[in-house]
Amino acid sequence: MLTVWLMTGIVSRLDKMTNDQASVSQHRLQQLHKLQAQILRHALSFPGVKKVVYSTCSVHEEENEQVCEEIYLKFKDR
Hints:
alpha+beta; two-stranded parallel sheet; 3 helices; elongated
């Protein structure tokens, strides 16, 4: 069984580091979403892959639910 772990973010960020405009800008979240989805698509492209574990330290929907939904819709029939 092949397991792929993908983790992004920093577990113990200080609030002062994440409460600024740059850390929650829509552009940044879109770029992170795109990168994470690309990494997951690549991991799932291997013929022998049995399980992929996706985990983030983010609280943003763009990096969590939206990535999972996009990947699920692409690979659900596999």
